[in-house]
Design goal:
The structure holds 2 protein chains of 2 kinds. Chain A is of the alpha+beta class. Chain A is built from 3 helices and 6 strands; from the N terminus they run H-H-E-E-H-E-E-E-E. Chain A has helices at about 10-25, 30-40, 55-65; strands at about 40-45, 50, 70-80, 85-95, 100-110, 115-125. Chain A is globular, with a radius of gyration of 17 Å. Chain B is an alpha+beta fold. Chain B is built from 2 helices and 3 strands, in the order E-H-E-E-H. Chain B has a 3-stranded antiparallel beta sheet with strand order 1-3-2, covered by helices on one side. Classes of the chains: A alpha+beta, B alpha+beta.
């Protein structure tokens, strides 16, 4: 990746996760091969303060491959700066047994070839409504100048 | 009361810990579960000795593995 000047960081981050998980869940390659295709060997991820290196990342992919039936990344906003991306997204997931959504606040750094080198994430489970539907996204983005504020429009 | 500790493979975050704890808590006789993601362990308190096969089945049901 190297520089996000010519790439939409929102699109990049959505495609990165969807492509990684697609290869992992729908392919039959060794999970280590898939992890290495999307991450540099010195990858360090810290999720909610818990460090995950390459070995732990590979171990974490095995349950996903075994049980995950669907996943969708809803990227609300993303900002690129050099080789880094900050993004706010919601991961909607389905496994054989449960489904849910997780809000993620992501700060990542990528190599020139697009592989992830480093990521820090804070996550929050989205509470489910009684009917099993996650509450609608509440936008915190400011409305464009001159545009009506959608947050103030009647439903 | 019986206290047992198990190594669990594949956990990465608090959500993983919750999934594992929820499944182990369903085992009859289990009274408490403490999951440490950083140490890859689940410590289980129960009012009877647990069969490793029960714990393995619960962990696998959550999507994770015992060694």
């Amino acid at each position: 990746m190297g520089d996000f000047a010519d790439i939409d960081p929102k699109e990049f981050i959505a495609n990165f996760f969807a492509s990684f998980m697609g290869d992992l869940v729908h392919g039959d390659e060794d999970p280590a091969v898939v992890v290495d295709r999307y991450h540099t060997p010195d990858i360090v991820q810290v999720a909610d303060g818990i460090l995950m290196d390459r070995a732990k990342l590979i171990a974490h992919t095995r349950p996903a491959r075994k049980h995950q039936t669907g996943a969708r990344w809803e990227v609300h906003e993303a900002v690129g700066d050099g080789d880094r991306i900050a993004a706010r997204y919601t991961l909607h997931f389905q496994t054989l047994k449960r489904e849910g959504s997780v809000d993620v606040y992501f700060f990542g750094q990528f190599a020139v070839d697009g592989r992830m080198r480093r990521a820090h994430m804070l996550t929050r489970s989205v509470p489910m409504k009684a009917n099993g539907v996650a509450p609608a996204e509440v936008s915190s983005e400011p409305s464009p100048r001159g545009a009506p504020d959608r947050r103030q429009l009647p439903a | 009361m019986t206290l047992s500790s198990y190594r669990v493979i594949g956990m990465a975050c608090g959500h993983c810990a919750r999934f594992v704890a929820e499944e182990i808590e369903r085992i009859p006789g289990v009274t408490a579960v403490a999951v440490d993601v950083e140490r890859d362990t689940a410590t289980v308190t129960s009012d009877r000795p647990l069969d490793i096969a029960e714990v393995r089945a619960a962990v696998e049901e959550a999507g994770y593995e015992l060694p």
